[in-house]
Amino acid sequence: QVAVVESGGGLVQSGGSLRLSCAVFGNIISIETMAWYRQAPGKERELAASITKSGSTNTAEAVKGRFTISRDDAKNSVYLQMNSLKPEDTAVYYCNVENYWGKQYWGKGTLVTVSS
């Protein structure tokens, strides 16, 4: 049984910062890619940022220069540092992890609300 648990969401004013954390529990072998997706009200889920086991990152254009993804494999964790937040960053943020065989696991999400 594998559980993916996000934390760190909340309400923040425009221009503020938040740090999201995601921890993976259970018997998951060989985590490869870890990622943060987000889904704004009325919109489809989209990739915010991802990081491979080797440390290569991919960041969506909308958040490039403001969001930074990092991971700690010793803790089976991934983080998303979000700076200079904008109201349009308001969304539920989901953690996604993929193992060596391509199986993906999702968290239940954490809500980030940015007030103007």
Model description:
The protein is mainly beta and 116 residues long. Helix content is 0%, strand content 58%. Strand 5 (46-51) and strand 6 (57-59) form a beta hairpin. It is globular.
Q: What Rg, in angstroms, do the CA atoms define?
A: 14 Å
Instruction: Give the CA-based shape.
Output: globular
The helix-strand sequence is EEEEEEEEEEE
Helix and strand content put the structural class at: mainly beta
Report the count of strand segments. 11
Mean pLDDT: 96
Helix coverage percent: under 10%
Regions with little confidence, pLDDT below 50 for 5+ residues: none
Beta-strand percent range = over 45%
- How far apart, in Å, are the first and last alpha carbons? 41 Å
The description of the largest β-sheet is: 7 strands, mixed
The number of helical runs is 0
Descriptive terms for the model:
116 residues; mainly beta; seven-stranded mixed β-sheet; 11 strands; globular
Strand-helix topology:
Elements: E1 2-7, E2 10-13, E3 18-26, E4 31-39, E5 46-51, E6 57-59, E7 67-72, E8 77-82, E9 91-99, E10 104-106, E11 110-115
Parallel strand pairs: 2-11
Antiparallel strand pairs: 1-3, 3-8, 4-5, 4-9, 5-6, 7-8, 9-10, 9-11
Describe the structure concisely.
The chain is mostly beta strands and 116 residues long. It has no helices and eleven strands.
